[in-house]
Amino acid sequence: MKEYNNKYYKVKKLSSNLERVVYLYENIQEKKLYICKRIKLFNLETLNDSEIEPEKNFTESVNQELKFLKQYSNKEKYPHLNIIQYIEDFITIKPNKDYDHLSIITEYYENGDLSNSKGFPFYNIVYLLVKILIILDQFKEDKFVHRDIKPENIFYRTLNGPNRITGEPEYEFYLGDLGSSRIILGLTQDGRYTQAGTNEFIAPEVIEGYITPCRYYSLV
C-alpha cells in the first residue's frame, strides 16, 4: 500500500469520474478508516485559453465545497446537523505534471450510501426524512442550496444495539457531497438559476429557476 502525506495508506479505490477519485484510506497511527476524495487541480499556466475559465469555475466549486464542509462539521455550532464529517485536506505536488492533487479527508461511514441499502423499517425512513429536513432548514437559514440530494449522497451507519421496542437495527444518516452547493446572496444570484444535480432527482421548476419548494423535491 502506498503512503500518503505520512499519515495514510490507500486501501482501495471506491469510485471515480472525470473530476475526482474516491479512495478508502487508513490512518497509519489510528488504524482507522477514512474517505479520501482526490481532485486534480490544473496549473492555469499550462492550459489553453479555452480551458482556463472552466478550470477556474471548477476550482471555485471545489473551494466552496471545502468551505461548506468545514463550516458544517463544526459540531459546537451545528450539533443538530448530520453532515459528513470533515477531517482535513492537503495538496500533493506532482513533479513534472501540469496538475496537483487536492485530497479531502472525511469520516468513513461503514454502510456506504443509500443506493446500496435494501430498505429500512418505516420509523427509520421517517427519522431519515426528519434529519434531512432539519439540514435543509438550516441551509435555508444560511441562504445555502445543496442542489444534488439523492441516495448516493446520503450515507449511513448502524448504531450500537437494536431498537428497544422493535428489536430491529437502528441507523444514523449523513448528508454528503457538497460539491454542487451554492450560497444565495439575492434573488438574482447565479447559484439558484443554474442547473445542477442528477436528472432523476431534479425538480421540474429548476428549468425556469428555483422556487422555495424545489429544495424538498428530491426527498419525495
What's the topology here?
Elements: E1 3-4, E2 8-16, E3 20-27, E4 33-42, H1 49-72, E5 86-92, E6 99-107, H2 122-141, E7 144-145, E8 154-162, E9 169-175, E10 182-183, H3 190-193, H4 214-217
Antiparallel strand pairs: 1-2, 2-3, 3-4, 4-6, 5-6, 7-10, 8-9
EC number: 2.7.11.1
GO molecular function: ATP binding; protein serine/threonine kinase activity
Domain Protein kinase: 8-220
Provide an overview of this structure:
With 220 residues, the chain is of the alpha+beta class. It has 2 domains: 8-107, Phosphorylase Kinase, domain 1, CATH 3.30.200.20; 112-185, Transferase(Phosphotransferase), domain 1 (Orthogonal Bundle), CATH 1.10.510.10. 24% of the residues lie in helices and 30% in strands. The chain contains 4 helices and 10 strands; from the N terminus they run ββββαββαββββαα. It has helices at 49-72, 122-141, 190-193, 214-217; strands spanning 3-4, 8-16, 20-27, 33-42, 86-92, 99-107, 144-145, 154-162, 169-175, 182-183. The strands form 3 sheets. The chain has a 6-stranded antiparallel β-sheet, with helices on one face. A two-stranded antiparallel sheet has the order 7-10. The protein has a two-stranded antiparallel ribbon with strand order 8-9. It is globular. The model is unreliable at 184-197 (pLDDT under 50).
Briefly say what this structure is.
The chain has helices at 49-72, 122-141, 190-193, 214-217; strands spanning 3-4, 8-16, 20-27, 33-42, 86-92, 99-107, 144-145, 154-162, 169-175, 182-183. With 220 residues, it is an alpha+beta fold.
